[in-house]
Design brief:
The structure holds two protein chains of two kinds. By secondary structure, chain A is mostly helical. Chain A contains twelve helices and no strands. Classes of the chains: A mainly alpha, B mainly alpha.
Chain lengths: 294, 344
């Protein structure tokens, strides 16, 4: 158990939690604006490929990062257009976009790198060489971008004009409209923001693993969605649950040889907790009043 | 032309354009790719059999989703129910005696599949009916828990030693293959699929249960006002949807592999949901869209040497998106052309 008090364990927690943190903040922006978002999973995936393709095509990981965010924003803008302009069911749109992302990235993987499993290796934003995992993670600028996103969401949603508007269109779009808030534009902006933050999660994964591999989002978008629901659509709580799930997974990895719990149990933990919260057994979790009423 | 047909034509046209552009961008000719896709599916008896085999699972999963959609419920948990049922059928089927008669084994295992699917789906119904939790969220969560549960149980003793699947079923528990499609996995489960789809169509129109479900789907508040037991019906509908989903396991486990393993049905629950969305309330539409998605899925394999088969997933995703936005698109185009007689 002493291994749980080591720096290596802390580093694992941070590593696993970072993409959950970024993606769950994306879920918060989208759903607080009233647009259900199951497309987070696909957003992470296209951004991860965006980071790798951008880096190999331009030779610059910084441009790769930029292209990753752009890819995330693009996917969420499509979600916004089908749901807000095309009046499609948000769940249908999200599922279709996840399928588009999983098929499309595998198609591009073969088109760009002639491989059905993974891309060639890419350089990171910073070098990992000679550092421990914790130091390498702390030196990585994307780590701090995720921290910025979390702080920005926690503070921004509650205390800025933009945050107020987002919450207003998510709770009562007619009332927001009547005081002059442009509902469509606010929701579009919230989804673009969701695309950028979930995109950051994808970029983080790609730079962490230094390559793109098929299906590498691995359900992280759904875990992020679970943290949003468990947290009652509140950003600070969502961030805490993202770290909690990161810690549970890290503990499982660090204590693997002791076989205390099967990895499937840890894997299912966020989802089981979500069901318990939905049943009101942990505490009430109230979605934004106009969620899905788009 | 009625609005639904016009919508589907519009969606088909847009998807076909997207497909052509993708094929052209790859440097291939769309016509010859399509020809190869059809040659690899409906062109041979093996290909036709494979399409029927895939369409069987999609149609059953689609019926499960359509049953819930009729009540206005978005049953995304079909996939998890299939996964759990497949394991239940495989694990219990493997314990049956070697000489068991098909007349005992088939109905028994069908019952196991249906029961497992219903039990697995019930929490979604309870959460929806008693706690007003959105069925999509709990459905997604149940799917993820299903995947973990199947993996856990297989690794903890349900899998045969030194393998990742359950012990093989006795011969009597295997479904009979259709000999007219030599080499393919098409089996008598196709009859089950057709029976379910037609049976539900009859049930929905001719029984109190079916009519009440329709009423709930049309308007929950109106249904409640007329004295329909909303919560009870919602739970029943979701349990029924889960039971039907569980029957999709028969096709893969008893008709094809002869055992259960992780990821056996490979997301067919979602394809079924897509088929149900495409079909709307139509019975013939569900059978047709199951064949359509099965043709694309099998056809992807036959064109894979020339263009990545993932293009099929992209096309399916676009079809779903275009079908979802087509009514609005149609209404906007219609009002631009000023055709008031069609706006009824």
């Amino acid at each position: 158990m002493s291994r749980l008090f080591s720096l290596a364990f802390l580093a694992q927690v941070v590593r696993i939690a970072l993409p959950y943190l970024a993606a769950s903040m994306g879920g918060i922006w989208s759903e607080r604006a009233g647009v259900p978002n199951v497309a987070l999973e696909g957003t992470i995936l296209v951004s991860a490929l965006g980071a790798v393709a951008g880096t190999t095509l331009t030779g610059s990981p910084w441009l790769g990062l930029l292209i990753a965010l752009a890819a995330g924003v693009l996917l969420q803008i499509i979600h916004a257009l089908t749901v807000l302009v095309g009046r499609a069911n948000a769940i249908v749109s999200g599922l279709a976009l996840n399928l588009l992302a999983s098929g499309g990235t595998r198609f591009l993987l073969r088109a760009l790198y002639d491989s059905s499993s993974n891309s060639p290796a890419i350089p990171g934003l910073t070098s990992k060489a000679g550092h421990s995992l914790l130091v390498a993670t702390l030196l990585d600028p994307t780590t701090w971008m995720v921290v910025l996103v979390v702080v920005g969401t926690v503070v921004g949603l509650d205390r800025t004009r933009l945050g107020l508007r987002v919450r207003a269109v998510g709770e009562h779009p007619e009332a927001a409209e009547s005081v002059g808030v442009n509902v469509l534009r606010t929701r579009l902006f919230a989804l673009a923001l969701a695309g950028a933050t979930a995109g950051l999660a994808g970029a983080w994964l790609a730079f962490d693993q230094r390559q793109f591999s098929s299906g590498m989002s691995g359900g992280r978008g759904f875990i992020a969605l679970a943290t949003v629901v468990i947290a009652g659509w509140r950003p600070l709580q969502a961030a805490l649950f993202a770290v909690l799930f990161g810690a549970a997974e890290a503990a499982q990895i660090v204590l693997q040889d002791q076989k205390l719990v099967a990895h499937q149990v840890v894997q299912a933990l966020p989802y089981i907790l979500t069901l318990l919260v939905l049943a009101g057994w942990v505490r009430r979790s109230r979605p934004p009043a106009a969620l899905g009423r788009t | 032309m009625n609005a639904r047909v016009r919508t589907l034509l519009l969606a088909t046209l847009l998807s076909a354009i997207a497909f052509e552009l993708a094929v052209l961008a790859w440097g291939e000719s769309p016509g010859s790719i399509l020809a190869q896709l059809f040659a690899g599916t409906w062109g041979t008896r093996y290909g036709t059999g494979q399409v029927l085999f895939k369409a069987t699972s999609i149609a059953i999963a689609g019926a499960a989703a359509q049953i819930a959609l009729r009540a206005g419920l978005f049953q995304i948990g079909v996939d998890g129910a299939i996964a759990v049922s497949a394991l239940a059928v495989g694990a219990i089927g493997a314990t049956l005696p070697a000489g068991i008669s098909p007349f005992v084994a088939w109905p028994l295992l069908a019952g196991v599949g249906a029961a497992a699917g219903a039990v697995w789906t019930l929490p979604i119904g309870v959460l929806r009916a008693r706690f007003s939790a959105h069925e999509v969220i709990s459905g997604i969560m149940m799917n993820k828990i299903a995947a973990a549960t199947v993996g856990y149980l297989l690794s903890r003793g349900l899998a045969e030693k030194a393998s990742v699947h359950t012990s093989p079923l006795p011969l009597g528990a295997r479904l009979v293959r259709l000999g007219v499609f030599p080499g393919s996995a098409a089996n008598v489960a196709v009859v089950v699929a057709i029976a379910i789809v037609l049976g539900w169509a009859w049930f929905a129109r001719r029984t109190v249960f079916g009519r009440e479900v329709e009423a709930i789907g049309a308007s929950e508040s109106a249904a409640r006002a007329t004295g329909i037991g909303l919560a009870r019906r919602q739970m029943q509908v979701l349990a029924l949807s889960g039971a039907v989903a569980g029957l999709a396991a028969l096709n893969d486990v008893m008709g094809y592999k002869g055992y259960a393993e992780e990821g056996l049905s490979g997301g067919v629950g979602f394809t079924g949901l897509a088929a149900a969305l495409l079909a709307g309330r139509s019975t013939a539409g569900l059978l047709f869209s199951a064949l359509f998605f099965a043709t694309l899925s099998q056809g992807g394999l036959s064109i894979n040497a020339r263009i990545p088969m993932e293009i099929v997933d992209v096309v399916v995703a676009l079809v779903i998106l275009f079908v979802a936005v087509a009514p609005e698109l149609d209404a906007r185009l219609g009002s631009a052309d000023e055709r008031p007689e069609e706006r009824a």
